[in-house]
Amino acid sequence: MWWVFIVLLVISRCGFSFFLDDVGDTLDFSNAIQKDYMKGDLLDGALKLHGNSSNILNPNNIYEWTPITNNLIAGGRDTFIFDIDTGTTGFGIASTYEILILLSGSICKQPANAQGSSLGVFYSFDETLFGNLSVGNLQTFQNGYLQALALSPLESKDNNATSKYSNLYVVVTPVNETTGQPLDSQAAITDDPWEYKMSISENDLVYQWDSRSWLQVLDTDHNSALLLTGNVSAEADSHYNYSIYNPALYDLYVFSEEGSANLERNLNLSICAMMTGDYLVSSAISQESEGHPLERSDLAISKSITSRSGSVREQFYVTGLNASTTYVAYLTKKIGKKGNLSHDGGVLFSKETFRTQSSNNCSLIFDLEFCSGVAYSVPTSSNSFNKTLLATTFDKYAQSLFQNFSKALQIIPCEMELDARYSPLRTCEHCSSSYQDWLCAVTIPRCSVTQGEYHIHREKSANRNQFINDDIKPLSDYYEIPPCIEMCYYMVRDCPSDFGFACPSRDNYQDLFKRSYGYYDSSISEITCNFIGNTTDLYLTASKE
Fold it and tell me: Which of 9, 53, 259, 520 has CB 3.0 to 4.6 Å from 278, enough for a Cys bridge?
């Protein structure tokens, strides 16, 4: 079983999208078993080319990375030959021992009565496979997804490493999931076909599935939602030939709850079924807005790159939604041969669910110039329903409050020698950043229309500060998600004692604390407080409490 170690090493080097902890489940090749199947005749299926078809010379061949698309009914069969090329393998140290040939696929559609049957893929280096399926390994599509591995040992000839085998032979046919026997056309209940895509590569799985959602729902209001990917800079390895600041890398597809349920029933691992399904809106086809995304009201998705929470991420702003409605989002990611992004294949992440708020008492804003960390719903102004104007009004007020602090900070000896500074570990930049995060959070309240255990009820005329009473004039009463006390702690930690900053104690000043702050608790699913800043600090602080 030494090759298992090599497979794991290869997966870790090549950036497959599954967690390595899940390799035993997601890369389960134990189902690729040999059985004593009935001999069959060679039946050539009609091949629909997908990808760079100008390079396809033989319709029975399947070429490196280039997917094929075809339809099959019970009793049908497709046959392919893959030429093994030692020079194109992308697996580094593993190629010293053997060539790893990766098969992957995705079912786009399947018969309505497909229970108990699936598409099976038989593969072998033995060309007699076309006449005798028993010489091959079998891997079936599971929940619309296929992944399989074939290993071709290397042989040394004239100081050159060559593959022991020249070709991989592949047969695709509908099979009984229990017995593995190919389905008989006479036993077919319907003529509805399986529509599938399949690819073979020596470099990567062309079709991939990731058990993570890789999405974070930042917030929603009554007609929009803001979602954020994970840290894309963490994946930007040197062997990738693309920029992490390219918003074309990821796309978002939003389904209704019912539409998602139909997909999850049988084909929840299929990127093809998802992309061709009954989604409501997708960033892949949404037109870019000429103005600020906050001004959009049509059903669309605006995407952009943002630096938030101490990392680079891609954000999606979904507009034109209905109030009090549950939606399901799916994220996809482009991949490519040796780092060059391809429109073929890709990664499908697990679903992420979100729900819009019930009324327009709160408005979602983001991308503020000064308070760039603000990306949540705030009290809607009765003066105007323009979200851009609301965001600008809050932002300019917070910036005006920062000016006096900025002037006071200038008299602190920040550029002195290390032993003459107020702290050997913190600088004035740390202080300025922590104060700005705290100021934005306490000046721009996070709003919800739902009562929660950790929320503070605010009457529309009795807000956190007088500016909101006089200038914002909230449309209605709302519930405030209070700022996290941790931001106050960081400000005290990072700034000179000359400022006299202090935070209320949860134990000694419980009433003051509850009227002003909340605290982060990762063990509670409900949002307990509103945090702006580097979330790494927040998680570290919470782990010590």
Answer: 259
